[in-house]
Design brief:
alpha+beta; elongated; 18% helix; single chain; 313 residues
């Protein structure tokens, strides 16, 4: 009886795996991509990007904080980003679940996309700073900590677009106060369930409790030319009130200093007036609108951060 010799296993000879022209090229490309991804992950300037984002927030009057900033192949992603107003000492931040920043090639700059309040907000920020494009989609006013951030307990969804072109000023710096473009906002199912806001009463900032108000749907459009904005359309219609507005706004380097000069037509339902209390008395003192029965006229002036109201006409 013959015993077979034990079988030996040998490593494959790499010489047998001869790569053809296209295979060699593909292998080199894949190796290059792997090296590039590893290089980006190891050398991505996270500290510089964090400083840039915080600088942009400072320019807008905001304080920005984040838990983590990680780099990827096509950009960087920050998680649990908190935004608060720099003017508020004990501000409650608005929480952004995820913030992604990617480079843009045409024009060269940054593309930002944020997941917040159940929707998304995206912006394109060219390096030149000569234009701003912002889009809101599906923002749910009843989500996250918006009540703690704004003081208003509400619900409904908001969509919007802002497109501005900024001319250069002295020293070549873009001038927001001289921008041209357009703002559009739409809101659906808007409802104020309560909350507290601070409004000027006889020139003194006073906290005011908000009653329940079914605001309904909002459609607004403002066009800007050299910093001067004209209200092309404003209509708010719900079960408790109806409002339209015309007039102008004047842009400023910071949003809270945008100047308002608006003519407002208001119509409040009787049950809603009862819930307003003392504020309802002020509404009754407004002059009636001569063109639309049941409406009263008011004028809104001052600044966006501290508006003033007075009787119209």
């Amino acid at each position: 009886m013959t015993v077979a010799p034990p079988r030996r296993w040998r490593l494959p000879s790499w010489a047998r795996f001869e790569l053809r022209g296209w295979q060699r090229l593909l292998g080199l490309v894949l190796f290059g991509v792997l090296c590039f991804v590893s290089f980006v992950s190891l050398t991505f300037p996270e500290a510089a990007l964090r400083a840039r984002l915080q600088a942009e927030a400072d320019r807008a009057g905001l304080v920005l904080r984040m838990d983590d900033l990680s780099a990827g192949l096509f950009g960087a992603t920050a998680t649990r980003v908190r935004l608060s107003r720099a003017s508020d000492a004990d501000a409650v931040p608005l929480v952004v679940d995820r913030l992604t920043v990617r480079p843009m090639l045409v024009p060269f700059g940054l593309s930002v996309r944020a997941a917040l309040l159940g929707g998304t907000a995206s912006a394109s920020l060219p390096r030149s700073g000569r234009s701003v494009r912002i889009a809101l989609s599906g923002i749910d006013l009843g989500r996250s900590n918006l009540k703690a951030f704004s003081g208003v307990d509400g619900e409904g969804t908001v969509d919007g677009q802002l497109a501005l072109d900024l001319p250069p000023g002295r020293g070549g710096e873009p001038q927001l106060a001289s921008a041209s473009g357009e703002l559009r906002l739409t809101g659906r199912g808007l409802l104020v369930r309560g909350g507290t806001v601070t409004v000027p009463v006889l020139g003194t900032p006073t906290p005011v409790d908000l009653p329940r108000a079914a605001l309904g749907n909002l459609d607004a459009a403002v066009s800007f030319q050299a910093g001067a904005g004209t209200v092309q359309g404003f209509r708010l219609k719900g079960d408790d009130l109806e409002a339209t507005a015309t007039g102008t706004v004047k842009l400023a380097p910071r949003a809270e200093y945008v100047e308002l000069a608006l003519a407002l037509r208001l119509k409040l339902e009787a049950e809603f007036l009862k819930r307003l209390g003392v504020i309802g008395v002020g509404y009754a003192a407004l002059p009636g609108d001569p063109e639309q029965a049941g409406f009263r006229d008011a004028r809104v002036g001052g600044y966006l951060g501290q508006p003033s109201f007075r009787p119209g006409r």
